[in-house]
Amino acid sequence: MKSDRIKFLVFALVVLLVPLPLSGGYLTNVLIFVGINSVLALGLNLLLGYAGQISLGQAAFFGLGAYGSGVLTTTYGLNPWLAMIAVAVCVGLFAFAIGFPVLRLKGHYLAMATLGVGVIVNIAFNETVELTGGPSGLSGIPNLSIGSLTFDSDLKNYYLVWVFALGMILLSLNLVNSRFGRGLRAIHDSEIAARVMGVNARLMKVQVFTLSAVMSAIMGSLYCHVMTFISPNSFGFHFSVEILTMIVIGGLGSVYGSVLGALLLTLLPEMLRTFQDYDIIVYGLLLITMTIYLPGGLVEGIPALLRRLVPARKVREGSDA
Amino acid sequence: MLSLNGIGKRFGGLTALEGISFNVGKGSITGIIGPNGAGKTTLFNVATGIYPPSSGAVLLEGKDISKLPPEGRARLGLVRTFQNIELFGKMTVLENVMVGLHTQSSSGLFACSFRMPWQMSEERRIRERAMELLDFVGIPELAEVQAGTLSFGKGRLLEIARAMALEPKLLLMDEPAAGLNSSETADLAELIKRIRDLGVTVALVEHDMDLVMDICDQLVVLNLGTMLAEGTPRQIQDNQAVITAYLGEE
């Protein structure tokens, strides 16, 4: 318990100190998206890694957050913070409502249904031109501000996004190590045994689905204010798959694995620039290698690798600390 | 305690159970026996709400629970163990029992994520109670072991500890001695008697006749989905229909 606290504090400290030597350059900008993607990955990981329920529609909730905030602040001039709260509540209600029928499904059927939700929402972004600007996007979204502090630089936005991300990571860590988290993992291992133990599996699945949608929506709101321009392309099926890939690479059922996966998959395309059009091949090879040799993701893979390289006793001492 | 009234269960054209009626007396140990394919496990699944019955009703303390889902029945004190042990394999032994304490606690999504003070004290209480239950079945030293790595015998004990966590009024055990060696089975018999002495009514499906004859107060014999006989172990041993079903005609 105590070591969990220390781990989080160290992590938070690293996050808060990282941008200082970067002095607001290009890398800071990339790290903003690492923060956003971390929460999106974390939301899906709570659902898939812990409760064992897949969703291929996470980008839709992210997009609803972005468009909700974008439209409310730009077209209707609402206060961005109020808009963020209103949108989070609405997306939560939406997810809760569709959660009951959708989460009755299992496995491939659940994947298909959530994929369908994602595709429908994306079509709506494209087709409701008067509201969203359609395929050409929505521009002129204001930056967020608190009093006289306006979040208009990469460095400011970095701290804005990461304060939200750290908060959600902390809440998720609490959640997975609690009665609720145990219930989710029990459903994952054996739904029927969980129900016989009195776990209300149906309700808990919908609750965690709603939670992941709300987390994604809040990040969507932040995203639109950071970018000041959004278009439907950012919220399509491909992005849902990318979020899924992040947690597969980072580690299913691990909070920090979600962050690690988001970090790698956000930096990777930047690093693969030199390969130009062939980057997709490198990317695909990495995915295949990962799923074959490291199905537990990097958070399991790195300690396993260390165990092989370092004599066993040393590592055990290390992991006890 | 538990009454089955004319239970029938059909799967498509197959009649798995028909006209099963009997009572499980409060504080007793009732054994349900019968040859393979007699419908014993199906009867358990109907009693615990895994399948709805095609006909008839399940009554717990006089209340009709036929329409309740498994988790609803668990809350009323009807708890079961599984033939092939359904543990939460990726969780620790202690966490498995803590899931069993789910109905004895109430912290929800918000209390858990914000670590409310009452949630923290509830968490401590659950942990202590779970350790007591591991003591009760005799595996406290395995608390931090991953449940999926347990031997079959230890897994069975964990499953019983987890079921006891729900403070059941009626504990249904599906072949508790399956896969156990003779000394483990003897320990199990003692454990089941201790559970009864705590005031828990026990019903079990079992193939091990020595165990059944030793611990049961009452037996129900099923054959081909129907009730063949009902009575004390002594009466059943002398029942001609039962002998025929098990050994065939001369």
UniProtKB/TrEMBL annotation, chain A:
Record keywords: Cell membrane, Membrane, Transmembrane, Transmembrane helix
Cell compartment(s), UniProt: Cell membrane
Superkingdom per UniProt: Bacteria
Pfam families (UniProt xref): BPD_transp_2 (PF02653)
Membrane topology term: Multi-pass membrane protein
Transmembrane annotation, as ranges: 33-52, 82-102, 109-125, 158-176, 208-231, 243-268, 280-299
Keyword Transmembrane: yes
Keyword Mitochondrion: no
InterPro entries the UniProt entry points to: ABC_transp_permease, LivM-like
Principal subcellular localisation of the protein: membrane
Full protein name: Branched-chain amino acid ABC transporter permease
Automatic annotation (TrEMBL), chain B:
Occurrences of domain ABC transporter (ranges): 2-249
Record-linked SUPFAM superfamilies: P-loop containing nucleoside triphosphate hydrolases (SSF52540)
PROSITE patterns reported for this sequence: ABC_TRANSPORTER_2
InterPro entries the record matches: AAA+_ATPase, ABC_AA/LPS_Transport, ABC_transporter-like_ATP-bd, BCA_ABC_TP_C, P-loop_NTPase
UniProt cross-references to CDD domains, sorted A to Z: ABC_Mj1267_LivG_branched
SMART domains with a match to the protein in the record: AAA
Sample GO molecular function, one term: ATP binding
Record's keyword annotation contains Nucleotide-binding: yes
Keyword entries, A-Z: ATP-binding, Nucleotide-binding, Transport
Protein name: ABC transporter ATP-binding protein
Lineage of origin: Bacteria, Pseudomonadati, Thermodesulfobacteriota, Desulfuromonadia, Geobacterales
Pfam families: ABC_tran (PF00005), BCA_ABC_TP_C (PF12399)
